[in-house]
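WARN retry 2 of 3 for item q-0093 after timeout on previous attempt; input resubmitted unchanged.
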Amino acid sequence: MLPPAPAPRRASSRRGLLAAVSATVVAAPALSGCFASSATSGSAGGGDKRIRVAMMQPPRSGLSPLSDDAFKLSRWSTAETLVRLDADGDARPMLATKWRQNGRTWTFDLREGVTFHDGTKLTSADVVRSLQRAAGAAPKPRILDGVEMDVAADGAHTVRITTDDVDPLVPQRLSSPQLSILAAKAYGKKAVNPAGAGTGPFVLTESGGTSYATLDQYEDYWGGRAKAGGIDVKYIPDGTARAAALRSGEADIVEAIPVAQASLLDENQITEVPMPRTNTLYLNAESGPFRKAGLRAAAREAIDARSIVKGVYEGRADVAKGLLGPALPWADTLRAEVTGRARAADPDGAQITIGTFTDRAELPEVAAVLQQQLQKAGFTVKLEIREYANIEADALEGKFDAFILSRATILDSGDPAAYLYSDFASDGSFNIARLADAGVDTALDKASGTPAGDKRRHGIIDAEAAVLKTDAAIPLLHERVIQGDATNVVGSVKDPRERELIGLDTYVK
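OK item q-0093 returned
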């Protein structure tokens, strides 16, 4: 698995633990290779067309909401959380209508009139059960890694959450799909089964393991009736096959069209969505040639990211202006020119080794282009490229002079402070740059301790500037995900965080 969105600031050094409590969802016979009919058959809506969706990755943990499979439940609008995030990453009401903070304790008022798919009513006891199960999971959902919290009911429709330390991001944490609220029936002694247990506009009725899933319209949804009669999901890991499903008319919505396949589709069938994922060249500021700020500056000046975007990504990426990209619409408006950087020194043949991994197909090509650019500037460059699982430990131990990483920045909390801290703080758990800078640490501490909102965003941009000033990280580009929609699809959600896909207003004409 590639580097996920980082854990909160107090994250442990545990990484790569992506499996969670396993679950066995109601099984059904495997599909023959075709989508189910998009007609009204099987739809609780009694007349609305069904949506056929081709997804990239099959479930890894039986659709357990305590694993990364939770993002599928969220994208299908079957499981919901107490709060949701808006485009700026601010918390907005969902199953909770309002909340307030008093020191270490947050109080959430629940939405009344909500029913689970099994007909039971949402109460504070359900919220306590779901959050306690998540907090006690092994491993915990990433968003709770390093976070201790006590959850208690305060009446039928109020919940109190108390953390060990004052935490300004509790609402944002509760937006993570891994903290979805499910009915009591979902929770067995060991497994969590989300089938028929959510609160969203679609009810999960069948799962064919790693082959398919079926969801029907939930007529009693608290937010109103969905415009689609249901969703038929098929997992197609091969990108060429996913694109072919859209071209042939077998799929209505297709996740993650590969760049090489995008040109084979009609432009009105694809949408490029900025992702909260940045490709960055990390420079080892602790040892080797790049411990000298002048050589880090020389590397920065030698790199032409535009040629990488044009040549490797065929123009389907955004040249980086900073570590945070267009998936955070506020970042560029707050960002100012970075000043106080070191002057570039003459590389004079300095020998460097750049590491990266094969799991993301573009990165070896990016490495080859950087090798040429840096050699032209006077460096002597060697490349070392392996699978991510076989290179991560060496990168974290500082065995490379530079490392190219495709890094997710906000997927769990919608807030990039945790990413900046884990990657660039002196004690950061993912500090590949081996950076130890007092100015950076001060800026990161300030940003991490500021309540959510405009002041926190300004603090985050100040922390980004402090990192960029050191030249220990040279952001190259921000990736986009290419989503495919048939021309008769209306209202599919283009979400940079990949939490939403099918919503109330999504339908097939």
